[in-house]
């Protein structure tokens, strides 16, 4: 019986130690949290947009058509196109770039001069980029997008439209 009394006393002391430990831990957390956290690191798209703004400040080099194509692709991907960027590129290339989704535009924006030149002349193609061909552009524009998944909100909207009709 004496052994069980010792175990009971140990557990009672343990509860007291735990309450003290939690109380001290709470004070530590309050001190750390009240200081504040450092600013969150920039997201990759924020870094890319900042780099694009910096690149836009520099004028496009005269005669460097590939750099103009890269800048226009990056601007289209970011959703901020300036008129002078469109004027620096031929209308066929603008049509080609506007037909592409954002992922393809990013690939063009990161491509080298040689890769862009070979792709536009049809010698070799860049992986994952729409072919520079009027028929391919038209076919890509006519293609149906991937079927969208149905969500509960879609079913509720359909039921709501059925009830109002």
> Radius of gyration in whole Å, from Cα?
31 Å
| Termini Cα gap | 81 Å
Please provide the ordered H/E string of secondary-structure elements: HHHHHHHHH
Overall helicity:
55-70%
For the secondary structure, the number of strands is 0
Residue runs with pLDDT of under 50 for 5 or more positions: 59-63
Class by helix and strand content?
mainly alpha
What value does the average pLDDT take?
Answer: 77
What profile does the largest beta sheet have? none
Strand content: under 5%
Domain unit count: 2
Count of helix runs: 9
Overall geometry comes to: elongated
Task: Kindly describe this structure.
The chain has 165 residues and is an all-alpha fold. It folds into 2 domains: 1-33; 44-142, no CATH class. The chain is built from 9 helices and no strands. It has helices at residues 2-35, 44-57, 65-78, 83-87, 91-98, 102-109, 113-120, 134-142, 152-164. The protein is elongated. The N and C termini lie far apart (81 Å). Mean pLDDT is 77; it is low at 59-63.
Key structural traits:
68% helix, mainly alpha, 165 residues
Secondary structure: elements and pairs:
Layout: H1 2-35, H2 44-57, H3 65-78, H4 83-87, H5 91-98, H6 102-109, H7 113-120, H8 134-142, H9 152-164
Helix pairs in contact: 2-3, 3-5, 3-6
What is the gist of this entry?
This protein is mostly helical.
């Amino acid at each position: 019986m004496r052994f069980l009394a010792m175990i009971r006393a140990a557990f009672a002391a343990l509860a007291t130690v735990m309450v003290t430990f939690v109380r001290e831990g709470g004070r530590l957390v309050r001190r750390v949290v009240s200081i504040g956290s450092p600013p969150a690191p920039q997201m990759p798209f924020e870094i890319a947009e900042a780099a694009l703004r910096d690149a836009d400040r520099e004028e496009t080099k005269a005669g460097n058509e590939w750099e103009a194509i890269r800048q226009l692709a990056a601007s289209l991907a970011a959703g901020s196109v300036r008129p002078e960027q469109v004027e620096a590129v031929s209308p066929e290339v603008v049509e080609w770039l506007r037909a592409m989704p954002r992922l393809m535009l990013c690939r063009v924006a990161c491509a080298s001069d040689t890769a862009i030149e070979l792709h536009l002349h049809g010698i070799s193609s860049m992986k994952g980029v729409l072919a520079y061909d009027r028929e391919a552009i038209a076919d890509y524009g006519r293609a149906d997008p991937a079927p969208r998944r149905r969500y509960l909100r879609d079913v509720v909207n359909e039921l709501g439209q059925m009830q109002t009709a």
